[in-house]
Specification:
With about 325 residues, the chain is an all-alpha fold. Helices cover about 70% and strands about 0% of the residues.
Length: about 325
C-alpha cells in the first residue's frame, strides 16, 4: 500500500495508467500464446518454452498436461488475480466512467476466450461477478451512453457466441466449474479449500469476540477436519504447513476467525470511511475500478483471493489512499 501511495503521488497519473495499459496488453499476449500452445502446439510451444526459460511464465508442460492456461501464475485458479484484480476492473471501470475507446471494448471481448479455456472455477466466478455488476450498474444509471450500450451488447453477444459455438462443451463446463466443483467432495483442491473455510468458521464460532489471532488457525485445523478431507494430498500438505498458514486462500475467513466480531467491526468502520472518501470520485472510472475490485475481492476472498504477497490485488484497493490525485 505504501508503495502504491508513493507511486501514484510521485508519478504522473497518465504515466502510471500508460504502464497499466501496456501490462494488460502484455498479459493478454501471453494468454493467447499459452492458449495457442494448449490448442495447437508447434511454434506456440517453442515461444512459451522460451518465455519459461527467462522466467516470464511457469512450466508449459503443466499447462499442456492440464489443458489450461496459467498466465503468469503457477496454476489456473491464480489467473483470477490477473483477470479479476487488474484487467476486468480496469476495462469495466473505463466503460462505466465514460473513458472507453474501441481498444477497451475489444480487449474486454478478448478476455472471454481466455476465461473459458482457463477452465478455472475461480476465473468463471469472477467473470460472473463482473457481468452482474455491469448489468446492475447499467440499470441504476438513468442515462446510458451509446458507447456503454455498445460495449454491453458486444460483451453479451461475445459470450453468447462462445457459448453457442461450443454449446456441447462450454455449457456443461460452466455448470461443472461454477455449480458442481465448489461442492465436489471428490475434488482434492475443493476439499482443501472447503477445509480451510470450515476451519475458519468453526474457529470463529469457538472464539467469536476477539478471534484467535490471524495465523493461529493452524492450531485448530486438524481438529476441524472431516474424515473425508484426509484423502486430499493438498490437505496433507497444509497439515505440514507446506501450503502456508491454514487460513491462506480465505482472506475474509481469516479475518473472521483471526479477529472475531471486534475485527469485523473495525473492518466495517474502515469500509464506511473509504466509501465516504470515494464519493469525491463518483462518476469517474477510478470510482468504478475501486468498487468493482472491492466487491469481487470480498466475494472471492472466502475461497480463492488473498492479500498476502498479491500486489495486483492491492493495487486498485489502494485507490482511496491517494484519491485526491484523481480529482
Amino acid at each position: 500500500v505504501l508503495f502504491n501511495i508513493m507511486l501514484f503521488r510521485g508519478v504522473d497519473i497518465d504515466a502510471v495508467e500508460s504502464v497499466i495499459k501496456k501490462l494488460i496488453y502484455i498479459l493478454m499476449a501471453i494468454g493467447y500464446l499459452e492458449m495457442g500452445m494448449v490448442l495447437f502446439g508447434g511454434p506456440f510451444t517453442v515461444i512459451c518454452n522460451a518465455l519459461y526459460n527467462v522466467g516470464a511464465i511457469y512450466d508449459p508442460e503443466s499447462m499442456i498436461r492440464t489443458g489450461k492456461i496459467f498466465l503468469t501464475y503457477s496454476e489456473a485458479s491464480y489467473a483470477e488475480i490477473v483477470l479479476g484484480a487488474l484487467i476486468w476492473p480496469y476495462l469495466c471501470g473505463k466503460i462505466m466512467g465514460n473513458d472507453a475507446d474501441k481498444d477497451t471494448i475489444l480487449l474486454l471481448l478478448c478476455t472471454l476466450p481466455l476465461a473459458i479455456i482457463n477452465q478455472s472455477s475461480s476465473v468463471l466466478m469472477a467473470l460472473g461477478i463482473y457481468a452482474i455488476m455491469l448489468f446492475f450498474t447499467f440499470l441504476r444509471r438513468r442515462e446510458i451512453s451509446k458507447k456503454k450500450l455498445t460495449a454491453f451488447i458486444l460483451v453479451i453477444a461475445g459470450v453468447g457466441l462462445l457459448v453457442w459455438q461450443g454449446r456441447d462443451q462450454i455449457g456443461p463446463l460452466i455448470i461443472e466449474k461454477v455449480f458442481e466443483k465448489p461442492f465436489d467432495q471428490n475434488d482434492y483442491s475443493t476439499i482443501q479449500r472447503s477445509s480451510v473455510v470450515r476451519n475458519c468458521i468453526l474457529t470463529f464460532i469457538e472464539y467469536p469476540i476477539l478471534g484467535v489471532g490471524n495465523g493461529n488457525q493452524g492450531y485448530f485445523y486438524k481438529g476441524h477436519l472431516t474424515a473425508n478431507a484426509y484423502r486430499s494430498y493438498e490437505v496433507q500438505n497444509t497439515l505440514k504447513f507446506q501450503n502456508g498458514v491454514p487460513s491462506a486462500g480465505s482472506w475474509f475467513g481469516g479475518i473472521l476467525s483471526g479477529y472475531g466480531i471486534v475485527g469485523i467491526a473495525l473492518l466495517s468502520v474502515y469500509v464506511a470511511k473509504v466509501n465516504r472518501i470515494m464519493k469525491s470520485l463518483k462518476g469517474t472510472k477510478w470510482y468504478y475500478i475501486y468498487h468493482m475490485t472491492f466487491l469481487c475481492f470480498l466475494i472471492c476472498s472466502w475461497f480463492t483471493a488473498s492479500l498476502t504477497g498479491e500486489y495486483l490485488q492491492i493495487l486498485f484497493l489502494s485507490i482511496p489512499f491517494f484519491s485526491e490525485r484523481f480529482l
